[in-house]
């Protein structure tokens, strides 16, 4: 079973801008590898993504839908907020398409 995560391209880069995104329930993330020539900054719904990943685990099969294109991905890294252990950032690697 593959779990779909809907993402949008992200233009806000940098520590402070990502902090503001998280305050508005947006999770900054990156996707790279496979057919993508360069890493792309993306954003996901923070609470939905955190719930789905915590429920299904880091090693589940995920699909990121970005601008109508589906990418089969695996989670490379999740960065957590050190005190409350909330998600701060996720890196996805494309495994197939």
Short summary:
This protein is α/β, with parallel strands linked by helices. It has helices spanning 15-23, 46-56; strands at 2-9, 26-32, 40-45, 61-66, 69-80, 87-96. The protein contains 2 helices and 6 strands; from the N terminus they run βαββαβββ.
Would you give an account of this structure?
The protein is α/β, with parallel strands linked by helices and 97 residues long. The protein has one domain: Ribosomal Protein L25, Chain P (Beta Barrel), CATH 2.40.240.10. It contains 2 helices and 6 strands; from the N terminus they run βαββαβββ. The protein has a 6-stranded mixed beta barrel. Strand 2 (26-32) and strand 3 (40-45) form a beta hairpin. It is globular. The model has no long low-confidence stretch (mean pLDDT 89).
Write the layout of secondary structure elements.
Layout: E1 2-9, H1 15-23, E2 26-32, E3 40-45, H2 46-56, E4 61-66, E5 69-80, E6 87-96
Parallel strand pairs: 1-4, 2-6
Antiparallel strand pairs: 1-3, 2-3, 4-5, 5-6
Labels describing this entry:
6 strands; alpha/beta; 2 helices; globular; Ribosomal Protein L25, Chain P; 97 residues
Shape type:
globular
Low-pLDDT sequence parts: none
Mean pLDDT: 89
**The CATH homologous superfamily:** Ribosomal Protein L25, Chain P
**Category by helix and strand content:** alpha/beta
Q: What is the straight-line distance between the termini?
A: 16 Å
One letter per element, helices H and strands E, the order comes to EHEEHEEE
CATH topology description:
Ribosomal Protein L25, Chain P
Count all strands and give the number: 6
DSSP helical segment count: 2
The appropriate CATH architecture is Beta Barrel
Widest beta sheet: strand line-up: 1-3-2-6-5-4
Could you name the CATH class? Mainly Beta
């Amino acid at each position: 079973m593959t779990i779909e995560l809907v993402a949008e391209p992200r233009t806000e880069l940098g520590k402070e801008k990502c902090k503001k995104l998280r305050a508005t329930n947006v999770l900054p993330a990156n996707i790279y590898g496979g057919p993508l020539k360069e890493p792309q900054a993306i954003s996901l719904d923070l609470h939905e993504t955190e719930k789905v990943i915590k429920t299904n685990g880091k090693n589940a099969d995920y699909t990121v839908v970005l601008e109508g294109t589906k990418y089969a991905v695996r989670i490379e890294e999740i960065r957590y907020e050190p005190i409350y252990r909330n998600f701060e950032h996720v890196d996805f690697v494309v495994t197939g398409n």
